[in-house]
Amino acid sequence: MGDFHTDMRAANVYALWERENRHNRAPQTPHVWCWSTMGPLIDRAVAATDMRNAERRVLVLRNPGFANTERDGAAINLSVNLQVLMPGEKARPHRHSMNAIRFVLEGSGATTIVEGKDCPMQPGDMILTPAWTWHEHQHGGSDRAVWVDALDVPVHTYLDTGAFEAGPIHDLVDLPPDSSFFAAGLTPDTPSVKGYSPLFRYPWDSAVKVLESLVPNQDGSRRLRYTNPRTGGAVMTMLDCYLLGLTKGRETYSYRTNSNCVCVVMEGEGFSQVGEERIAWGPKDVFTLPHNQWISHTAAKNARLFQITDRELLRRLDLLWDETRDDGRHPPS
Length: 333
What we know:
- This protein has helices at 4-11, 35-48, 153-159, 204-213, 311-316, and strands at 32-33, 58-60, 79-85, 90-96, 100-106, 110-114, 117-121, 126-129, 135-139, 145-151, 164-166, 201-202, 222-225, 240-246, 255-257, 261-274, 277-281, 286-289, 295-309, 322-324.
- By secondary structure, the chain is of the alpha+beta class.
């Protein structure tokens, strides 16, 4: 009889009892990409390449906590990037199997065209480019336009379902205008089998107006969900987005969840307690809230955080759970 381990390798098997415990791993720590670092890097990216040489001029946020692992991206299940377009530039049309959202940080005059619909890009606007929808970017303004891209790339990488098609655009269908979904409780009586919101642009001014109309929670926070107007559910099948408003000097209730979140600071400054780690943040910073950690936020100035999560993916798989330390008074929604 040969050596057991040699024979196992030859047979393409391994002994489960000899593998490390892959369950109940130590929680991940949060990470923050500070705008003071990223802003100048974006200028250098502009100097390094132009749109004739790049499909998209994008800086990919890479979480150092994934070093020496099989993972990639900013957070588990979430790929997050910073994209920049200069005045007069265009990013040619393409489509892919990954869902994506764009959250605008700065600039005026840029437009994303999704399935033939113009979506102007103003700071704070969220633009959807759902899976397999044609999209392109154009910039007719006078200053650089920068936005956050968030995609479910890690999920497609794991499932080997990634697909990409370059333009030219073909097979467009007529879609109702976004304006037909702006009245609460009223939607066009047209059939749709799509799993994503037919509303591709969510303006910042509208989101802030609704957020401020909400009755604050007992900890002073307000939380708004971006939803599909046809269903009232998440905007896309694997990405779920929120806007969190924080009151100066008030610590939010602590919560813990198995979902993962990336926050974009649109306004204000403060810090977040994530497990044993405390991370400070300010305008345009991007930071992660990894799963299975107790989390709370404290604003030094009134703040608004845009949040991208994988909650909808876990909900659809019947895997999502949340808990709080405050008798359920402030659970994630």
